[in-house]
Each structure stands twice: as C-alpha cells, then as structure tokens.
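Subject: Sanity check before I submit

Could someone independently write out the structure tokens for this chain? I want to compare against mine line by line before I put it in a report. The sequence has 539 residues.
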Amino acid sequence: MGQNAAPTRTVKGSGPSDLPVGTIRRNPATRAVLGSSPIHSPAQAQDAIAAARAAQTGWAAQPLKGRVRGILRVCDRMVARADEIAELIAAEVGKTRIDALATEVMPSVIGGRYYARCARRFLKPRTLDRSSLLFANKRSRIYRVPHGVVGIISPWNYPLGIPMHEILPALLAGNAVVFKTAPETQGVGQLIDELIQAAQLPPGVFTHLNLPGTTAGDVFLGADGVDKLFFTGSVAVGKILMARAAETLTPLSLELGGNDAMLVCDDANVERAVNGAVWAGLQNAGQTCAGVERIYVHHAVYGEFMSLLRERVEGLRVGLDTGHDVDIGAMCTDRQSTKVRQQIEDALARGARIHAQVSVPAAYREGNFLPVTVLADVDHEMALMREETFGPVLGVMSVTDMDQAVELANDSMLGLTGSVWSRDRDRALAIGRRIRAGAITLNDHLMSHGLAETPWGGFRESGIGRSHGEFGFDEMTEPQVVVTELLPFLRRNLFWHPYSPELYRGLKGLLTALYGRGVLSRLRGLGAVAPILGRMFRS
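---
Independent answer below. Compare away.
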C-alpha cells in the first residue's frame, strides 16, 4: 500500500539545516490543518526501546488475568468513545465515519475481547505426543515465551483497525510495545496511546513514537533495536526492512500489498456479487490492500453483471461526510492519488474504456477526491491489473470459463486475498482452493479482516507471517520446548558413553525391534537389546 510522508513544520535556525519540529496533519477532504505532532529523534526512539526492554520483564511476570483485565478496559474505552474515534479517523484518513466505525472501531473491540478471552488457551503449555517408544522416559512440553520488545509500524489507511490487532495480543502475550503510526494519522496514534492508558500499564511497556519513515527502520532494526518487528505497508519498503533485519537476524512479520481478484461464476447470485464488489472494492475510496481490484466474470453473466454494476456505481455519493449521507470519501494522500490516475491513464491508453464513473461534485474538487471508475476491456498488459491500485477503481474482464479466471487470478506476484461467487458452495470452494492467496472468501470479500479468529496474511510478495487469531497470537511469542526426564534415577541413557561393539549391536537391534519388517526380524532385534539394558543402571 502506498504511503508518503506528511509535511513537517520547520524552524529556521543558524545550524546546518532546518530542524523539523512537528508533522502537520491535514484533513484530505478539506485540506484543513488538523494539528501538528512532535517528531521524535532517533535518540529518543532508542531511549524508548531501552525503557521498554527494562519494563518488559516485570510486565511478563505479572499474572495473565491482570493483563486481561487491562485489555478489557481498553475495549470498554473504545466502545464508550466510538463516535469520537470514528470522527477522528474520518478526518485524518478522509474516509466516511461509517467506514471508520464498521471496519476499524468494531473489529478492534471484537478483536480485543477475543484475544482477552482466548489468551489463556493460546499461552497454555502444551504436551507433545511422543514420537517413539525409544524415548518413553521423556516428556516434552511447549511453552510460549514473549519476544521481549515488539515494534509495530502501521499504515495510514486503517490507523486503528490494523495496529490494534497487533498491539493488544502483543501486550497480552507479555511483550512491551513500541508503536509508530504513519505521519498522516498521528492523531489516531495519540488516541491509541490514550486508549492503552486504560490498561494501566507500567511505565515503558507501551510507547507511541512519531518517527520519519526514513529513520524508523534503522532505529527498530539496529543493534539495540526491537526483538521483533511488525510492518504493514508497501512491498518496496517491506523488502528494505527485510534486508535491514538480516543484519541482526531480527524476526519480521510483513503484511504488504494486494491486487486481489474476484471470480464470478456463471451460477452466481449476480446482485449479491455486484453489491459485494462495490463495497469491497470501493469503501475507504478503494484504499484497502485486500479490497476487490480485479474482477473476472464468466461470459454467461458478464452482461448482466456489468449492467447492474454500472447502476450501483453511478448511484454512489462521493464527497465530505457531514451527516452519514456519503458513500465514498477522499483519498488520504496526494501521492497515492497521482499513482491511481497514472494507472487509469495507462489502461485507457492500452485500450480500456470507462464503463461507469462518478464524478467528484464541484463543491469538493479542492479536496483529495478521485472519480469512482469502472474500466472494461482491460487485460494483463495494463498496470491496473498487475499492480496494487489502492484507489476507487475496478477493472472487469470477461472469461470463457473459471479455469481461465483462476489462471488470471494467479497471474500476479501478490496474493493477499481472493473471492469466488457461486450458488454451489462445493464448486466455489474447489475454485477458491486453487487461488494462490492467503485468505479466500466465498460469496463475500474483504470482511475476513474483521473476523478476529481468522488468520490474516498473504502468499508471495504479499508478505510473511500472520496476524489475527491463534496464528497471529503465536507470532507474538517464541516456542520454547522443555524436555523432562521421567526416570532421573537412571545413571545414563542407552546411547551414552562408553561406546562398545555390544552397544552398536544393541542399538541396531532396538531399531529393528521397533521398526523392522516381520515378526521374526523384530524378535531377533529384541534379543540383541537385552545385553545393553543393564548399562543404564551401572556406573
């Protein structure tokens, strides 16, 4: 997902350069200044990481029930302040308040309560099944150990919904958290800081920083950096961070981009498919890494689908949300708007045509709005169909059959999500399992990000690791195995020193007795074991 740095206010001085003193935040729909957030220096960030490391041990040692109570207080605070939170998100990102409430506030509360409810089960030590009678005297258990200091870098498109699914499980698991949100959404970052205070954490356990993207990677991944980094953003930046992390072997979880495909079968409920495409592709002005971007429609229903799609799209209302009577809001950044315009121009130059479009009302043309656009006659020579778009644009292709649709869906280096639309659930499942993506939905799209129990992450260049659910919670800890000896009175294991020909014959006999073919072969092997059993009791 594209990101660009917000402008900084500077103070003219006599030194070698002007000093940035604050990130200016603007409402992208009105261009009005919302405020200015102080910028932290690399030294301040390093101090925050050091303080987090000092505080984390004590935090992890606290009883889990105390951490759970704290997170539940955070959830209660989000419910009580839902209107205020939605309004701030809408102002900083440019989205509608319904988008902010439905796709950020509600999933954050649902997720927080889910992790609080399941944390004990996720963290409970687990006994492993034995692999062999040879080690019947051993018992192995897996314990989940917090990483220590977790760094979280989150994007501007979902400034609450994305980081909360990382911050809350990280804290529950016993980690300290150092959190950086995008420059454009520092107000939401400060609000998260206020919300987390409801958990009554010890000083240093949670810190919100405003760091420029150009320095954040070096700070988080330096020699004295975090113990694990979670990053959501562009593929290009993800690769830079991965290379930087290699220098210290710092583990990463990367949720990068998507160019997600929607496959509409000949037996689909066309009305549901169209309504789903409009919401999943265009809510938040299309600035969603897992939103619908490419649509492949079976030729038998293509005409019906396109006719209804034009009707639904042309009925959308674009503009500033002042009374919950707008469907599509503004783009968050000028840089992303420019990229989307370039992709549309590239597609039109290569033969695409505008099938439907909603112009921006004259009253809002000073804001960062883009026309909602549906393009037909698209193909995979166009950047629109091969790269992440991240704007209010849909490209639609007719396909001869669903085999062709699957082939086109997989013709991408990205693989975050995909969807299949069919009245036949088994058929849809079979088609969906062939799509190379981390999350597949049937007769729906995008909403699985709101299912707290459902792992979230992609294949190929869409990222590494998972968030959400038990898989995501496991990312917050490292597995530690503890092997217990059940017969500690034995003087040695069978295979310990001293070595001898008799020991070799006995061990080979044991191997044959356990895994050889045929009863007689196993009995002969067992006979070779008997002479060496006594060595476990002798000095």
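---
OP: Matches mine. For the report I'm noting this point. Residues 489-536 form one domain.
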